[in-house]
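Narrative of accomplishments. A recurring question from our advisory board has been how the design workflow behaves on a single, concrete structure rather than in aggregate. To address it, we present the structure tokens for one chain from the evaluation set, followed by the sequence designed for it. No filtering or post-editing was applied between the two.
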């Protein structure tokens, strides 16, 4: 288990470096990310490199048994670079240049930036490829975080080239984009611009393709640096840090280019439900890897510095969120950063070693977590542990975010709400796309699959016919991959499998809602109440109020060996739980610990059960089977606020009902 954080020794006198290494060992640190923002120190001028200080730091760390995740340092160009080459700077849609003085001030498509970055990466990799301390390489940092989209002339030229490769000729582009609308027809690729500030709404197909282009163009930087590292003879795994469901980059495509997946995660301690978004992010990273290892690369030891109000983490909360990642297969728990910065924009951001030093709660919690992670076994989900897939993909994120829809929808927020409804029932989830192999899942939940390519639609139909339970949650199967309607209206692919026809989206004013009754309880629908007609489906619930009163709200239809469900509204959180609970019951899906408090997380991974209390109150958890903790059998776990326990399932031969007793599991996290 890797444990550590970003280390920025260049911010501190060299006399302090050995003391840092000693404190790292005391905290259980065995890996640090080094050089993340060191370009100006490594390369003080073009063609000139200074590795002396970095050699010294890596040597000190190696002497203390601390491994290095060595960054390529390309995330923040030095002042000399932008001074000599100002055309490498990015621009906003209105033409505003983003000047130096912060970070990430480069256009991903700038030939000059790419040349300079490649020279830097090559020099660093050639020097340290064989160093025994370097166990991992870290490309750039949080690509796109501050500059997700660039509209400069560099981006213009690269976008035109991307379109040529994608469409071949401008006539095909015109057909795909529907450019006869508003006289947008092009006669040459040179006429196509990035979607810069315009008088009114812009072509949605162009917006969608620009987002695809941006993700691809930024990915080219990752591949360029990765290949340079490999070209220098480095054999260590290579990664970069993702940011959960970050909107600008298609991480499904990015994950294929990495040896391991890494994520930065900063749930808000002031939001008592933020641990659910964190859980979604962990499941997303685990799913993106498809079996590759993944690491929690960044989190805060306590408070961050960039919210309007930066609440501290409660005692034990940092450990609870860390264990949430470990339980979902993370092979490392890391922080930003090791030592809290004395100056700069992030000097108020917490660190493993705070300004106040080792006589702090933060330090005690850091040391304790390091000691508890060290002896943990490898925890990984096994085939069969997860029976539910939730669909999430970037094409739909981008297409749904386009303007001029019947109602404004936040794709990521809605997917996260569906995830939370499932999570509260302790049902484990993989994140997938409609194009993935879904045969391993009893239930697939598809919210807002607005853009559904033909192959993905066929895949969902086949999934149902082979025996799966598919829940389609509205505003789905509307357009093709170019954000254009197909002949025949809506649900042209899934309609027969769902047994319905969709006539209208029924947008609801913000203050309005509708009701539907399911399994003896009334629930509220919001945002839209679609008008659907039955074409073989069975209504499970009808709208009972509002304009669509008595029309079908929730339907089921048997197709082949499976069942397809359709929900014609966006329910509130209680309604989401009710709908998923209904589908799970029909499909035979049960939660890990159905009787546990909804804010106590239960994760089953192989032979292990991890239970985590994400509240500031004590909770007792009754187990559904015999587990062992500290070599003692347990049937109930007592968890203090933000406490957790890792339990092992014994072999059946060692299980004896007469041995069962109430033994509090070894619970952690409530550090005073």
């Amino acid at each position: 288990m890797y444990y550590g954080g970003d280390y920025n020794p260049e911010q501190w006198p060299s006399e302090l470096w050995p003391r840092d290494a000693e404190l790292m060992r005391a905290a259980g640190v065995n890996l640090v990310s080094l050089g993340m923002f060191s370009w100006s120190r490594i390369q003080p001028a073009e063609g000139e490199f200074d590795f002396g200080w970095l050699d010294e730091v890596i040597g000190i760390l190696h002497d203390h048994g601390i491994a290095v995740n060595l960054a390529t340092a390309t995330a923040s160009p030095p002042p000399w670079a932008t001074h000599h080459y100002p055309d490498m700077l990015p621009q906003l849609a209105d033409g505003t240049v983003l000047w130096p003085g912060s970070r990430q001030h480069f256009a991903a498509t700038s030939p000059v930036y790419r040349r300079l970055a490649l020279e830097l990466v090559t020099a660093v990799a050639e020097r340290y490829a064989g160093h025994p301390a370097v166990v991992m390489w870290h490309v750039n940092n949080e690509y796109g975080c501050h500059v997700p989209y660039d509209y400069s002339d560099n981006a213009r030229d690269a976008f035109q080239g991307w379109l040529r490769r994608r469409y071949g000729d401008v006539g095909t582009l015109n057909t795909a984009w529907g450019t006869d609308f508003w006289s947008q027809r092009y006669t040459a690729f040179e006429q196509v611009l990035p979607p810069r500030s315009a008088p009114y709404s812009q072509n949605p197909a162009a917006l969608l393709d620009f987002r695809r282009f941006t993700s691809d163009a930024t990915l080219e930087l990752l591949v360029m640096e990765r290949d340079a590292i490999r070209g220098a003879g480095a054999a260590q795994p290579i990664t970069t840090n993702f940011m959960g469901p970050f909107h600008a980059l298609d991480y499904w495509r990015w994950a294929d280019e990495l040896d391991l997946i890494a994520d930065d995660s900063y749930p808000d301690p002031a939001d008592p439900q933020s641990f659910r978004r964190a859980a979604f992010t962990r499941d997303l990273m685990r799913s993106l890897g498809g079996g590759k290892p993944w690491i929690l690369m960044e989190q805060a030891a306590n408070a961050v510095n960039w919210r309007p109000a930066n609440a501290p983490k409660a005692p034990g909360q940092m450990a609870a969120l860390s264990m949430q990642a470990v339980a979902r297969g993370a092979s490392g728990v890391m922080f930003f950063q090791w030592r809290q910065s004395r100056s700069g924009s992030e000097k108020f951001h917490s660190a493993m070693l705070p300004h106040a030093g080792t006589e702090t709660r933060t330090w005690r919690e850091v040391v304790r977590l390091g000691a508890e992670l060290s002896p943990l076994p490898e925890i990984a989900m096994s085939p069969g542990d997860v029976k539910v897939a939730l669909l999430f993909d970037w094409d739909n994120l981008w297409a749904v975010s386009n303007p001029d829809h019947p109602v404004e929808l936040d794709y990521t927020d809605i997917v996260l709400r569906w995830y939370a409804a499932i999570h509260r029932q302790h049902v484990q989830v993989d994140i997938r796309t409609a194009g993935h192999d879904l045969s391993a899942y009893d239930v697939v939940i598809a919210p807002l699959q607005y853009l559904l390519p033909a192959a993905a639609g066929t895949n969902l139909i086949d999934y149902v016919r082979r025996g799966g339970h598919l829940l389609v949650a509205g505003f789905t199967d509307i357009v093709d991959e170019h954000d254009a309607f197909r002949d025949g209206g809506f649900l042209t692919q899934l309609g027969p499998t769902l047994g319905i026809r969709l006539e209208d989206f029924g947008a609801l004013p913000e203050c309005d809602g509708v009701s539907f009754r399911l399994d003896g309880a009334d629930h509220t629908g919001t945002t839209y109440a679609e008008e659907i007609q039955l074409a073989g489906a069975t209504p499970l619930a009808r709208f009972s109020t509002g304009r669509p009163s008595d029309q079908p709200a929730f339907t089921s239809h048997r197709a082949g060996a499976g069942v397809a469900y359709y929900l014609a509204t966006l329910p509130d959180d209680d309604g989401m739980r009710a709908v998923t609970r209904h589908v799970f019951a029909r499909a035979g899906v049960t939660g890990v610990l159905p009787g546990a408090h909804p804010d106590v997380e239960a994760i089953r991974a192989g032979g292990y059960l991890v239970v985590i209390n994400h509240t500031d109150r004590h909770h007792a958890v009754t187990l559904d089977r015999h587990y062992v903790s500290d070599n003692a059998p347990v049937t109930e776990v007592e968890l203090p606020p933000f406490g957790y326990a890792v339990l092992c399932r014994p072999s059946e031969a060692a299980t004896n009902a007469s041995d069962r007793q109430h033994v509090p599991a070894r619970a952690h996290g409530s550090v005073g």
